[in-house]
Amino acid sequence: MLVSLALLLLGALAAVAAPGLMARAPWPDREPVVALWVWQCVVAGVLVSFALSMTFSAAAAWQAVRGHVFAPAPHGVVEAYALGAYGPWSAVIAVLLALGGVWSGAMLVREIHRAGRRRRRRRAELLARSPLMPGEEPGDGRLVVLEGERPGAWWLPGPAPQLVVTTAALDRLKGRQLDAVLAHEQGHAQARHDWLLHCSGALANGFPQIPVFAAFRDEMHRLVELAADDVASRRFGRLTVALALVELNEDRGVFGPGPASGAHVPLRVDRLLAPTQRLSAGHRLGLTAAAALVPAVPLVVAFVPGLRALG
Predict the structure, then answer these.
(1) Taking each helix axis from N to C terminus, what angle separates 193-206 and 211-236, rounded to the nearest 10 degrees?
(2) What is the pairing mode between strands 162-166 and 153-156?
(3) Which of 41, 228, 230, 287 has the most beta carbons within 10 angstroms of its beta carbon?
């Protein structure tokens, strides 16, 4: 069996089929944290498949690579992979996949660089609108109150994450509603959702033709909000979080007819107000364990010929 081709086809199949399977699953909205984990495992499985395919293709194409990959392996293991039968296309596949890996790394670096520039620009704007008091250093306060006519609350990621809330939000939100909004933003900061958004954005921007990467980016933006809603709901109740979302967004036109930039907000409110139907602990654990096995599948495919030779 040509292991490299099998791994390539496995990665391609997962990249095409996974978005549809996840879209039809009924549980991700109820269990956003589990869904985040499943998506990460699926994408990791695709990337591991391509990386292993590149490795075996390069080993078949060049003796120098083969010597490093199979250096500690007995001669029978090398023969079990039948690298000599791969044909001239092995070098082409290895080069293309290697270029894809380099491109992925470049896209991630670019995404992180752009996010850093956006973060520095927003911090500079924040400092201009909310100057430091005498003796105060940047990053000393985790909560910044900003003068503003529009209610809003957000977090600025970085080494010292900061929560920002406008004075309009303070005027509009009542009691526990403000605490719920701050808990939502703290949920983002504690889970470092910014890194998920960076990685998913880099893959989607670098490979827009691959369905799983575009779906990964879109689902990360949606699921991190649901996960943060759940963090706030556990402390202050689902009704309180839903009312806070309405208060923050009712002036933005997201609840009326027609498209709006915050079109996902009504869906979040409906989810919070709907009867809770959580998965059982056993089902949740089963999904988590099954997702963890996804990246192991290409490893099993890669090592089966060698294990057979040793056996």
Answers:
(1) 160
(2) antiparallel
(3) 228
Comparing 2-6, 8-12, 196-200, the range with the smallest average pLDDT is 2-6
What's the CA gap between 105 and 103, in Å, rounded?
5
Q: What own/partner pairs with CB < 8 Å and gap ≥ 24 does 60-65 have?
A: 60/4, 60/84, 60/86, 60/90, 60/94, 61/86, 61/90, 61/91, 61/94, 62/91
Residue 155 has φ and ψ, to the nearest 5°, of -125, 145
Measured from the Cβ of residue 175, the count of other Cβ atoms closer than 10 Å reads 9
Task: Tokens for 141, please give them.
Answer: 């306060």
DSSP symbol at 259: -
Q: 66 and 59 in contact (C-beta within 8 Å)?
A: yes
DSSP string, 57-122: HHHHH-HHHHHHHTTTS-HHHHHHTTGGGS-THHHHHHHHHHHHHHHHHHHHHHHHHHHHHHHHHH
Span 90-144, pLDDT tens digits: 888 889 999 999 999 999 899 888 888 888 888 777 777 666 555 555 555 577 8
- Both tokens assigned to 226: 């649901």
In this structure, are strands 162-166 and 143-146 parallel, antiparallel, or unpaired? Answer: parallel
C-alpha 4/C-alpha 85 separation (Å) is 11
Residue 184 has pLDDT above 90, yes or no: yes
| Neighbour count for residue 206 (Cβ, 10 Å) | 18
First to last CA, the chain: 17
Nearest-10 Cα torsion for 56, 57, 58, 61: 120
Angle at 28 between CA 23 and CA 34, to 5 degrees: 130
Whole-model pTM?
Answer: 0.85
Q: Which two tokens stand for residue 96?
A: 């293309």
Neighbours of 188 (CB within 10 A): 21
